TrEMBL record:
This is Septum site-determining protein MinD. GO terms for molecular function: ATP binding; ATP hydrolysis activity. Belongs to the ParA family. MinD subfamily. Residues 1-61 are annotated as: Disordered. It comes from the Bacteria. The lineage of its organism: Bacteria, Pseudomonadati, Pseudomonadota, Gammaproteobacteria, Aeromonadales. Interacts with MinC and FtsZ.
Length: 335
């Protein structure tokens, strides 16, 4: 009997031991949970800090609206007259008293400075500003013809990846803070990264098109990109206002069915018309002299650009230079 009692007592003792071990272990476990919670808290905080620094480091595109109006002069195709038009529109806006900057986004192929006659004064360029190698005011070149006009040249580097949406946003923000009213962005050809950099922040697009099928087709693609990839599209703001600028127009060739008419192009592109710029030998002369064509008050092309600028500013101006100029003999015989 006593044997049994002893056994029971022993078992009790063992159970007690076991219980206290379990208790100790539970306590230990509780400490671990507490530590773990603290540790987790620490990790979380660290992660948050890292995330914050990360967003500070590469905060991405600028998502706040600008006060200035950003106008991109774009097209799918090269050689249609974007640079000529950027120079003319920027000069025209400045002539109207608006503080205007024109940026050459054509990295590696800069020629806006040539067209505007300031190539010898280029020291710093857009990429230098984006990479913080120069301040904006060091890179901006004051136009020698017109007050209120500044040029930000492109770099001749071949590195097309040197531009980032964030960097471009910073440059535009800098211009906005400096009180510019209009920023005209001269786009490179194509629909790749460079063209996207130029159009991303646009409020308005001047879709530069020649009256030929391939140019119209490429313009159609760029309109698609403006409607899907611009900041306004991405953030679901009011869409970019796209308008058609038909350049190098030759009415005589339209009559002969060698060129698409204004109506043909408008029908194909279905965006409102900003202007029609006639083909003119004055354009090449002006660019060789480094004077924007809009400064030539005698030239039809210059006058047509003046009209386009008026329309950009919201004024209604009748279309000119879209019909064939009658030569001396045809005028004589028509009577
Ligand atoms: N209205 C025009 N009449 C005659 N030549 C023009 C006209 N517009 C542009 N050009 C010429 O066409 C060529 C390409 O123009 P440019 O403005 O450099 O085009 P992009 O910037 O689209 O490549 C240049 O030689 C320019 O002088
Ligand atoms: Mg160009």
């Amino acid at each position: 009997m006593s044997e049994i009692k002893n056994e029971v007592e022993k078992t009790n003792e063992e159970v007690k031991d076991l219980a206290s071990t379990v208790k100790d272990e539970t306590a230990a476990a509780e400490v671990t949970t507490e530590d773990k919670a603290a540790e987790e808290e620490e990790v979380k905080a660290a992660e948050q800090t890292a995330e914050k620094t990360d967003t500070e480091k590469k905060s991405g595109p600028d998502l706040e609206p600008f006060n200035c109006r950003i106008i991109v002069v774009t097209s799918g195709k090269g050689g249609v007259g974007k640079t000529t038009s950027s120079a003319a529109i920027a000069t025209g806006l400045a002539l109207k008293g608006h503080k205007t900057a024109v940026i050459d986004f054509d990295v590696g192929l800069r020629n806006l400075d040539l067209v505007m006659g300031c190539e010898r004064r280029v020291v710093y360029d857009l990429i230098n500003v984006v990479h913080k190698e120069a301040r904006l005011n060091q890179a901006l070149i004051k136009d020698r013809h017109v007050d209120n006009l500044y040029i930000l040249p492109a770099s001749q580097t071949k590195d097309k990846d040197a531009l980032t949406l964030e960097g471009v946003g910073e440059v535009l923000r800098g211009l906005d803070n400096a009180g510019f009213e209009y920023v005209v962005c001269d786009s490179p050809a194509g629909i790749e990264a460079g063209a996207l950099m130029a159009l991303y922040y646009a409020d308005e697009a001047v879709v530069t098109t020649n009256p030929e099928v391939s140019s119209v087709r490429d313009s159609d693609r760029i309109i698609g990109i403006l409607n899907s990839k611009s900041r306004r599209a991405v953030l679901d703001w009011e869409p970019v206002t796209s308008r058609l600028l038909l350049t190098r127009y030759v009415p005589g060739r339209v009559t002969k069915n060698e060129m698409l008419s204004v109506e043909d192009v408008q029908e194909l592109l279905t965006i409102p018309l900003l202007g029609v710029i006639p083909e003119s030998p004055d354009v090449l002369k002006a660019s060789n002299a480094g004077n924007s064509i809009i400064l030539n008050k005698e030239s039809d092309a210059g006058k047509a650009y003046e009209d386009a600028v008026e329309r950009l500013l919201g004024n209604e101006v009748e279309l000119r230079f879209t019909t064939e100029k009658k030569g001396f003999f045809s005028k004589l015989f028509k009577r």
